[in-house]
Design goal:
Blueprint: H1 5-17, H2 20-27, H3 31-45, E1 50-52, E2 57-59, H4 61-90, E3 93-100, H5 105-117, E4 121-128, H6 135-138, E5 144-148, E6 156-165, E7 167-172, E8 183-184, E9 192-196, H7 202-208, E10 220-225, H8 228-236, E11 242-245, H9 246-251, E12 257-263, E13 268-275, H10 281-294
Helix pairs in contact: 1-2, 1-3, 1-4, 2-3, 5-10
Protein name: LysR family transcriptional regulator
InterPro entries: LysR_HTH_N (IPR000847), LysR_subst-bd (IPR005119), WH-like_DNA-bd_sf (IPR036388), WH_DNA-bd_sf (IPR036390)
Family: Belongs to the LysR transcriptional regulatory family.
Length: 295
């Protein structure tokens, strides 16, 4: 049978007071209600917990055994509730989330769910420059950032990874590969890829514009850009191609460029990152919502 918390509370207080009147006062109940709760608990257990006479109230051997087992379990339950209350009270204020490009559905859905569950914490979003995924985070302008992978920064924590997408090559309509339905990574040999400028770390820039195919053939490094729009302008001018994920390519369709799926390269992916040691309750809650949206 299901356990009634009020019955357990009544038993614990009566075990302390050994007096029905004082127990009723502490619980803001009538003495008859205290008796009802105790009788109900004894029926659940199947035996008397107290010896009751007109002069005294005392625990039975069963009552003593039950009390010994119940007290630590009830204290643990109280701690669980208190910890949850503390956590909920901490999810307040403002949470600033930066993102590269446009926020995708996973991020927007996580923001909406987070706000519905945590009305006391407002989320602000800010766009991050393509060429500086971690700068705003380190400067404290945002609390967390949604960035393109990879992330290998000692001072940052990588949280949920989501939105794994096939990479595509974006080129102008006159490019030699423009008519292809799909290409392999080895077809990039000898091509020029527009690169991302610093201050993004070199390993991150290399991942966005590799200088070798998986088999080791040379890919030429083209001009460097700070934003995606700069890259698209150079593509139209015939200065090279650019690797972007499929959703980004679809969101920036133009009549003077084409996007071609590329096999043989790691998928593009996004990750939520934050400063090590600064995963606040608000940030933990948002990361959990983002993880659930991405699953």
């Amino acid at each position: 049978m299901g356990v009634e918390i009020r019955e357990l509370e009544c038993f614990l207080v009566l075990a302390d007071e050994l007096h029905f009147g004082r127990t009723a006062e502490r619980l803001y109940l009538s003495q008859s209600r205290v008796s009802q709760l105790l009788q109900s608990l004894e029926r659940r257990i199947g035996g008397p917990l107290f010896d009751r006479t007109s002069r005294r109230v005392a625990l039975t051997p069963l009552g003593k055994e039950f009390l010994t087992s119940l007290r630590p379990a009830y204290a643990a339950l109280e701690r669980v509730v208190e910890n949850a209350r503390d956590y909920a009270n901490c999810v307040r204020g403002k949470l600033r989330i930066g993102f590269q490009g446009s926020a995708n559905d996973d991020v927007l859905n996580a923001v909406a769910v987070f706000q519905s569950h945590n009305p006391n914490c407002l989320i602000d979003v800010a766009e991050l420059p393509l060429n500086d995924p971690f700068g705003a985070l380190r400067r404290g302008h945002v609390d967390a950032a949604v960035v393109l992978l990879p992330v290998a920064e000692d001072d940052l924590v990588l949280g949920p990874v989501f939105s794994r997408q096939q990479q595509t090559l974006t080129v102008c309509t006159s490019h030699r590969l423009a008519g292809r339905a799909a290409i392999d990574a080895e077809d990039l040999a000898g091509e020029v890829l527009i690169a991302v400028a610093g201050p993004a770390p070199s390993y991150w820039r290399q991942a966005q514009a590799p200088t070798q195919t998986p088999a080791g053939a040379l890919i030429h490094r083209g001009p460097e850009v700070h934003t995606l729009q700069e890259g698209l302008s150079l593509i139209v001018a015939g200065r090279g191609g650019m690797l972007v994920c499929r959703p980004t390519a679809e969101n920036h369709r133009r009549t003077d460029i084409v996007t071609i799926p590329v096999t043989g390269l790691p998928d593009s992916a996004l990750g939520l990152v934050w400063r090590r040691g600064e995963d606040t309750p608000s940030l933990q809650a948002f990361a959990a919502h983002l993880r659930s949206q991405a699953e």
